[in-house]
Amino acid sequence: MAAPALPPMALSSFRRWTTAAAPPPAPPPAAGAVEIAERFSFYGVSANLITYLTGPLGEGVAKAASALNAWNGTAQLLPLLGGTLADSWLGRYRTIVLASLIYILGLGMLAFSTLLSSGGHHQCASGQVCAPSTRQVAFFYASLYVVAVAQGGHKPCVQAFGADQFDPTDPLESVSRSSFFNWWYFGMCGGTAVTLVFLSYVQDNIGWGLGFGIPCAVMAAALAVFLLGTRTYRYYLIAGGKKGLLARAGEAFAEWRSRRKAASHEHGRDASSETSGLSVVDEEDQAVVSNGDFVKEAKAVLRLFPIWATCLIYAVAFAQSSTFFTKQASTLDRRIGDRFKVPPAALQSFISITIVIFIPIYDRVIVPVSRRYSGRPSGITMLQRIGTGMLLSLLSMVIAALVEARRLRIAREAGVVDEPKVPVPMSLWWMVPQYVLFGAADVFTMVGLQEFFYDQVPDKLRSLGLALYLSIFGVGSFISSALVSVIDRVTTARGQSWFANNLNRGHVDYFYWLLAALSAVELLAYVFFAVIYKYKNKGAVHAV
């Protein structure tokens, strides 16, 4: 489906391109619909992926967890490229449309990959599951990374595009923008909760082809709705002379190399040394002026690095909710009544449900109460909000370690240690508190990071700002993948892997204790950098 031509534009009073008609006071529903559909599609793939990798694809637990973390890391880092592409060349609207089309392609390929024959049915013993062919595995991973590319273009743009619909010079709309980040996340997580329950059941009980095909259809429908709203949106102007930060960084480097060569050439000519020296100085002065904006923007982005770096372990802990948490849940008693079994991945819905419940409480109760004491419109600052969530994440890892230690003890007492297919006589509801704490942590840290990186980068780099927020989780996923691989190799050499395919013989609880300790160290470092951080001056009063 081709994107329609953009409607006639007029420059708004706050330097944005908008339709000639009066702009809406809030993001139109179509922008939210495409984001909810994207989250439905992404979590429809990622939430239960560990089950597909260790089931139909036949991979070991440690290998599957590392592969999933590597894919997640790639998917969360690619928004840096997508955000730059949007800010520098295409604009957010066109990037969203292009990324949505790539999403539909990738999801369709995933659904088709489940239909490929393994090519070895005649060699399989009766009653045994055939190993997938190399062709099927390769095509599946290629499809998976097409989805990652789509996420890279989609994720940094849709939320920034929604926030662009607010006029920062209008007092009412400016105040509403902070609540927008809360309610945007509310809607996104509401859709995610439905996804985790519905699609994980379809994938576990009906089939993976349908489980991957439904997100493809939903994404196509959402793109159609988004295109229908084209004439109602506000747009940023991508001026020909205003290139993005990375593009101008390349130009600045090329110009510097050119000046060095010119200076070297002129200094070799004795007859005109004085004149050439003045010429080089003049050229350098002009270069400083032409690259002044680039230097300011680069400094504005680099000053965010300490906050970015001290949130990485939070992202490592977050990665466990879709890997080892899900594998743990699969070993427990998941029965509700005589017939129904809760899909292991469905427990992740408690994160989203907690967010859906807690965001209204935060927005309507916590913010007004804290506002009375702090005198700030937002109640607490963005950095205080992020730090609160990091503390809750630390507590979640402590509880996860205690619950896993209990699961291992009950498995030993029940004599099912060497029977991995027999459920441990322990209810899966024991795992709910760690999911709930993660949900509460997300309300503080995830939403806080989104607002922080959107607000603190230069205005023209806001897609890149949200991409920087996402890159925290990309790098965190790669760190998690590396940790799992190294720990698996070391502990296997010593006799028994912490991540044994039979989790009853492993020690995932030790891994959780390690993450809790790292989270504590990270929190101390974060508090230090948060205290000395100076907010970008926008006329609003901030304090750590």
Report on this structure.
The strands form three sheets. A three-stranded antiparallel beta sheet has the order 1-2-3, with no helix packed on it. It has a single domain (18-119, 130-238, 298-532), classed as Growth Hormone, Chain: A. Helix content is 69%, strand content 3%. With 544 residues, it is mainly alpha-helical. α4 (92-113) runs antiparallel to α7 (208-228). The chain has helices spanning 29-46, 49-54, 61-90, 92-113, 134-163, 171-205, 208-228, 245-267, 273-290, 292-302, 305-309, 312-319, 324-330, 349-374, 382-414, 432-456, 462-493, 508-532, and strands at 9-11, 17-19, 234-235, 332-333, 335-336, 340-341, 424-427. A hairpin with a 5-residue loop joins β1 (9-11) and β2.
Layout: helices, strands, pairs:
Blueprint: E1 9-11, E2 17-19, H1 29-46, H2 49-54, H3 61-90, H4 92-113, H5 134-163, H6 171-205, H7 208-228, E3 234-235, H8 245-267, H9 273-290, H10 292-302, H11 305-309, H12 312-319, H13 324-330, E4 332-333, E5 335-336, E6 340-341, H14 349-374, H15 382-414, E7 424-427, H16 432-456, H17 462-493, H18 508-532
Parallel strand pairs: 4-7
Antiparallel strand pairs: 1-2, 2-3, 5-6
Helix pairs in contact: 1-5, 1-6, 1-7, 3-4, 3-5, 3-17, 4-5, 4-7, 5-17, 6-7, 6-14, 6-16, 8-9, 12-17, 12-18, 14-16, 15-16, 15-18, 16-17
Subcellular location: Membrane
Family: Belongs to the major facilitator superfamily. Proton-dependent oligopeptide transporter (POT/PTR) (TC 2.A.17) family.
Pfam family, one: PTR2
